[in-house]
Structure formats: C-alpha cells, structure tokens
Amino acid sequence: MSNHADSLILDLFAGPGGWSQGLHALGLTDTGIETDPAVCATRTAAGHTTIHADVAAHPTAPLRGKVSGLIGSPPCQTFSAAGLRAGNTDLPLCHQALDDLAHGHDTRGELRAACTDTRSLLVVEPLRYALDLRPDWIALEEVPAVLPVFEHTARLLAHVGYSTWTGVLNAADFGLAQTRRRAFLIASRTRPALPSDPTHADGGTPADLFGDGLPAWVSMAQALGLGPGVTVATRGNRKASGGNKFRASRPSWALTEKARSWVLHSRRDSPNWIAAHGARPNRHGDQPAPSLTGEAHRWHWSRDGAYQRPLDVTEAAVLQGFPAAYPWAGSRTKQFQQIGNAVPPPLATAVLRTVVPAALEVAA
After folding, report:
1. Residues 6+ apart with CB under 8 A from 88
2. Cut 0.70: pTM above it
3. β-pairing, 300-303 with 262-265?
4. H helix or E strand, kind and range, residue 315
5. What is the Cα–Cα distance from 312 to 289, expressed in whole angstroms?
6. Rounded Cα gap, residues 176 and 81, in angstroms
C-alpha cells in the first residue's frame, strides 16, 4: 500500500475532466495524462493538473512509488456503436497484448501494427500502468463492447493481489438525466471491490420494510432546471455573441411546463440503428436523454413535429453532469466531442466512492 505523502491519483486518457470533477466532489484531485491540445486547454481552464503526453508512449518508471490510485478511460471510438467498430476486429490482438504484458513481454508495437485501427490497443494501457505502478486502487471506464477486455484485465489483476469487479452501469441509475450505459472495472489491493448502489430507478421503487425506495430517473426538464439565480446562455462558445438565455431556476425556454411536447432528436434514427437497438433514441423532455456522444452537435430540439433549434453545448454539458459554466475550449464540434467522451462526473463520484480509501474513511 502506498504511504507516500506526495502520492498521486493518475488519470490516463484524462479527457476534459469527468473523473477529475468526480474526484473533486470527494475532496480529491488527480493528475491527468492527455494528448489532445483542446482537451488540455479545457482541463487547464477548469483547474485540473495535466501532463500533455501520449499515454502509450509515456514512461512509467518515473512514477513508481508515487501513484496511489489509477483511473483510465481509453478512447472508445473504435469500439463504440456510434463508430465503425473496427475495434471488434482487433479484440483478439488486445487480449494477446494483455496476456503478454502479464507475462512481462511488451509486444504492443508489433500488435499495434497489426490492428485495423491502431487506437484499439490503447485499451491495454491501464494494465501496463497497473502492473508497473501497483496502485492501491483502480477504476476504468469504457463502452459496453469492451467489457470482455475489462474482464480479462480483472483476471490478470486478481493474479497479483487485487479484488476486482466488472460490469455495466447506467448513468440514469445514479441521478443523471441520461440513459448512458458504460462498462466499468473496479479493483483494490486493500478492500473488496464493489459497485455503488443505485440512487434512482426507472419509474422509481416503492418504500418497503428495508428502506424508503428509490426516486424515478431524472428527466431532461428536471436537469436543465439547474438551480436558483443562474442564467444560462444557449451558446457553447462564451466568446460569441447572441444566443438565447434562460433562468436556471426553471427549465430552459425549450423545455417548458409542457415538456413532453419537446423532443430531443439524435442522428441515430436510421433503419439500421432501430433494427439493432429496437427503438428510436429520440426522447421527450420528461425523459432522460439518450447516451450523449461526440455527434451530439448534430442533435436538435423539435416541438409538435417542427424543428426548433440545435442542442446547445451548455445543455449537453449539464445533461452529462458538468456545471453549466464549465470552461470548454475549442470549436463547437470539439466541445461536443469532449462532452460525449467524458465520464459523467456524478457517475464517476459514485464509482470512486466505493474504492478510494479517503472517500471510504469520510463515509465511515
């Protein structure tokens, strides 16, 4: 167990700060490794410590003995249902890389060259860091298609003394206004690894002898109500002029008391998507949003079947669990990509609360 006063929580593929914001809610901070300049700019503006580097090329030796916690959300584009899913073809190579690393052989270079998409192999980087640094705890997140890789990683971590849990969590079950399903791996060297208990349920659950029951999922209208005394501009780039404003003490002008008449449309309404998933992902205002992706810059609001306006960056950020005033950097499209790729901060907090020793001590 790490006893260094200067021990770090290291955040691989750190993104704009989903895990960082989740840690902040627990009174903790991380150091992120991120290569995208716009994402680094967002992190810097938000006050999150960042190393501008390539996770796959960054040496682990200088970090030995200094890392108490390891977080990782490898890029998901090659595995995501929203993309081409080239990562599915590369899964055998990912599994081979995991086994090779566990046996002390770094074959990432040759296996990466054999991949259909070289980004696919990034999913093995957390194991490389974990085996080299032996942090006290680990938390990883990815799209559900990567769950078999996480299960393989968990088995290898168990061989070196970690308690592990893997599974898929729905952000709506933890108070997010979004039915975002993601695979997680939780590991600990000091205590049993267990997932958080849900705080919400679809439709809610009744009280019984064992408790008060769970409230219903949060709707988009509820989430965009935010809090009293705040005005939100419906334009993501705060340097730009124009845009509409709404009082944050009530739903936005697009989500009135007649919330069900407003519909959020995504681009995932093709016959192929419907055949694969069984339903259109478009949602009424009194429902949670569908899973936000980097393509959300193409999403729009309609009312009574008529187009109204695009989904705004600020609204997307709030639906993802970020503060309304979060300082996104880059173009509008780049901002949406950052939001869609980030771990929702409240979900990150829920996951970390069960595994981070400091959080568990506070809870006790």
Report:
1. 79, 145
2. yes
3. antiparallel
4. helix 313-319
5. 13
6. 21
Q: Check if the beta carbon of residue 70 is closer than 8 Å to that of residue 14.
A: no
Q: Strands (DSSP E) along 215-339, which ranges?
A: 231-233, 245-247, 262-265, 283-284, 300-303, 306-310
- How far apart CA 53 and CA 22 sit, in angstroms, is 22
Residue 351: CA atoms inside 13 Å, Cβ hemisphere, count?
A: 34
> Residue 335 is encoded by which pair of tokens?
């901002």
Distance CA 203, CA 179 (A): 13
What is the spatial distance between Cα 340 and Cα 83, in angstroms, rounded to a whole number?
13
Domains, the chain, ranges and CATH? Answer: 8-200+342-363 (3.40.50.150), 220-326 (no CATH)
Question: Among 191, 192, 211, which Cα is nearest to 201's?
Answer: 211
Tens place of pLDDT per residue across the chain (364 aa): 444 446 899 999 999 999 999 999 999 999 999 999 999 999 999 999 999 999 999 999 999 999 999 999 998 776 665 544 566 789 999 999 999 999 999 999 999 999 999 899 999 999 999 999 999 999 999 999 999 999 999 999 999 999 999 999 999 999 999 999 999 999 999 999 999 999 999 999 988 777 788 999 999 888 986 334 333 334 434 444 444 444 443 334 444 445 557 788 886 554 554 455 445 568 887 889 988 888 888 888 887 788 888 889 999 999 999 999 999 999 999 999 999 999 999 999 999 999 998 666 555 4
